[in-house]
Design goal:
Helix content: 40-55%
Number of helices: 21
Function: Required for the transposition of the insertion element.
Mean pLDDT: 76
Low-confidence stretches: 1-56, 467-475
Number of strands: 9
Family: Belongs to the transposase mutator family.
Order of helices and strands: EEHHHHHEEHHHHEEEHEHEHHHHHHHHHH
Organism: Spongiactinospora gelatinilytica
Protein name: IS256 family transposase
Strand order of the largest sheet: 7-6-5-8-9
GO biological process, one term: DNA transposition
Shape: elongated
Strand content: 15-25%
Length: 500
């Protein structure tokens, strides 16, 4: 038993329930040696929760077997020059605890390897025995820790917890590095953060190797089978700077978000553009979009009812000839007033509003004709031509009720996650290759999903109900589409036999 520091008093209480005349139970404390379990049992019995089996399963708090001496010693040794407490870094409280636990575990591993414990008679004449210790510094999630690793004379001991030639303890540190990387920090920023906060020194290559460990999972995610039918698919791209053909250039990374028949949104994949060697340029081309759509079909997608994108009709119809292509109406609204003088934009926008809020396609055509013949249309003919050029891709959403129109009105279903992804890519000067682009975007997608899931879980813990408002919904990968049940019924009527 650990001795108490001088001047300290050890008080162990034994509890005995005492029945009052009215039947209530109280606790009577007796100053005798006990492990404190009786007090816990009596307290549980007092509030009506006394179950011997539950009490036996409760873990003993670490504070009880440690007593006061160990925490006091750690507290004293972890003070800095200013009298503050250092929880992380070399020589800190947590580092000392990790050192003690790891060295104790390594001793247990060696005893298991040798077949006998330290100083046991069974070790005499066994042919192998302990051979001292060797110093080794490992990087952990709380800073560097100097360990005394035990050895055996035969040199056959291979530690599992701290492997030979391993410079860090995986787990907490690796997860921290991957999380920082997913939030948009560059490798050099992660190096500086670990050095400044945890006094951990890791090379550029070591951090890159830690983040590269997710590439196998990313490749499996990119090749996973998909749903047979997606009623709606949003297609878009974000532009990133990538070193390709020894030149840093802007390349689009294509992204798709599909809504399945249950109304859940999924990200089928991320496709960085492949730069042709002879041109050394990359752009959003129909040729590459055709390859993306073909990849979706090869992974099990049999049909797409509506593709939400800006143009690229032919690219979609290569793999899915019966798909309806709907352009983004919001983009048309933004592009139409660009040639209009600032003082006239409000008036022109009011006239253009009559086009995209018309009850049907014929009324929209009449509104466009009226605008073209009006004074505003003659003064700014380019504003009307924006709708004329995209008329075939603009009018499909008029066939549906306002509920479905809101779903098809804009590409916000994919632009919202794109905004989140741009936040983690804008801090990068450039990426060394396509794998680095896919790796970061995939980690960012997982990070966004994790953040939204935690928010919903916290809300459910507080209120007992899960939030379902658009502001709290998941941006991607499983988000429930608002009003999907009514939309699915209408889509099934418009596309008979294609939704199963």
């Amino acid at each position: 038993m650990i001795k108490a520091p001088r001047g300290a008093r050890w008080l162990c209480w034994q509890s005995k329930p005492h029945e009052r005349p009215n039947g209530a139970t109280t606790i009577r404390n007796v100053g005798v040696e006990s492990d404190g379990r009786a007090l816990l049992e009596a307290a549980a019995h007092q509030d009506g929760r006394h179950r011997p089996s539950d009490t036996a399963q409760q873990p003993v708090p670490l504070r009880e077997p440690l007593g006061d001496q160990v925490p006091d010693l750690l507290l004293e040794r972890s003070r800095d020059g200013a009298g503050g407490l250092r929880l992380t870094g070399e020589g800190s409280m947590l580092a000392e605890l990790i050192k003690a636990v790891l060295e104790r575990a390594l001793e247990a591993e060696l005893s298991s390897h040798l077949g006998y414990g330290k100083h046991e008679v069974a070790g005499h004449g066994s042919g192998n025995s302990r051979n001292g210790r060797i110093g080794k510094t490992v990087q952990t999630g709380v800073g560097p820790v100097r360990l005394a690793v035990p050895r055996d004379r035969a040199g056959t001991f291979e530690p599992v917890l701290v492997p030979k030639r391993a410079g860090r303890i995986s787990g907490g540190l690796d997860a921290m590095i991957i999380s920082l990387y997913a939030h948009g920090m560059s490798v050099r920023d992660i190096q500086h953060h670990l050095r400044q906060i945890y006094e951990v020194e890791l090379s550029h290559e070591a951090i890159s190797n830690i983040t590269d460990a997710v590439l196998e999972e990313v490749r499996a995610w990119q090749a996973r089978p998909l749903e047979a039918v997606y009623p709606v698919v949003f297609l878009d791209a974000i532009v990133v700077k990538v070193r390709d053909n020894h030149v840093v250039q802007s390349k689009p990374a294509y992204l798709a978000v599909g809504i399945d028949t249950e109304g859940a949104e999924h990200v089928p994949g991320i496709w960085p553009a492949k730069t042709p060697t002879e041109t050394a340029t990359a752009g959003q081309s129909a040729r590459f979009w055709s390859a993306v759509m073909t990849d979706l079909k090869n992974r099990g997608v049999r049909d797409v009812l509506i593709a939400r994108t800006d143009g690229l009709n032919g690219a979609v119809h290569v793999a899915f000839p019966h798909t309806t292509v709907q352009t983004c109406v919001v983009h048309l609204i933004r592009n139409a007033p660009r040639p209009v003088a600032r003082r006239d934009r409000a008036a022109v926008a009011a006239e253009l509003r009559k086009i995209y809020t018309a009850p049907d396609a014929e009324a929209a055509f009449d509104a466009l004709a009226n605008f073209t013949a009006s004074d505003w249309g003659r003064r700014y003919p380019q504003a009307g031509r924006v709708f004329e050029a995209a008329w075939d891709r603009f009018t499909p959403f008029f066939a549906f009720t306002p509920g479905v129109r809101r779903l098809l009105y804009t590409t916000n279903g994919i632009e919202s996650p794109n905004y989140q992804l741009r936040k983690v890519t804008k801090a990068r000067g450039h990426f060394p290759g396509d794998d680095a682009v896919v790796k970061l975007l995939w980690l960012a997608i997982i990070n966004i999903e994790d953040k939204r899931a935690r928010e919903r879980a916290a809300c459910k813990d507080e209120t007992g109900k899960t939030k379902s408002s658009p502001g709290s919904a998941r941006l991607i990968e499983g988000q429930r589409t608002i009003g999907w049940r009514e939309a699915l019924i209408e889509l099934d009527i418009a596309y008979p036999g294609r939704i199963r």
